[in-house]
Amino acid sequence: MPLGWETDRAVLPILRYRAHRAYLLCDPEGHPKRAIFLAKVTARLKRAGVEPIHVAVDTYMDLPNTIREVSRIVQLETQAGARVHVNVSASGKLAALGAALAAMAHLTAGRGSVYYVPVLDYPSSEREKTRFGMSRGMKSDPIELPLFSLRLPNKAGQLVLVQLLANAQKTVTYTAARANLSHKGFQGFGGENGQGGTRASRTTWIVRFYRDVVRPLLDQGLVESELTGRDRVLRLTRAGEYVACLSWPPGETLRLESKNV
Question: Taking the complete model, does pTM exceed 0.85, yes or no?
């Protein structure tokens, strides 16, 4: 869950779901109160026998990294056979958007849920806000939201987007992209350097790469293509950056420099 100034809204549904561990996405250095509520929630979870795992992300302002981290965690846990429940109500609106997008991209029915927590009431005094946070109690069971399937690019396209996102300039040549696909085990895109073979075979690789990988990404507005020297270059768009975050492999880490929404 992205965690803001909440305690009950974070802890009570975890206990209701009988979770074994909880990932708390929070940047305690961003505001003193975040550190306070992170400590409160962590202590309550430990007392309840739930393993808290802190993930440092500014969920109030950093939408790309919020999406990427939730995507990574959901994939990591579902691949291990776990059910994953994503709380979209314990932080701000950007956090809710990012967490819901990531969950719906990787969760299927029966493997978990995206849920919202209705609260009992909202503290009014500063003393109560310091103790409970922005809300208090849980009025009813968590409200599970329907899972809508998000259409991601094919696996080769996702890998190209991830390669672009990992590059500081957010660009990659066609040759380097094809070579990376070949290195990752994708057949039909040429050797590891994207070269070799006969002229006819190289032409086949290029045509297939454009048809199966580049063209769909261009059509969805996720990349732009331009001619630079003797090779074409792919450039990641803003929309492509978010889809790359959704596509980020669970076993790899990356901290994006930009925190602009």
Answer: no
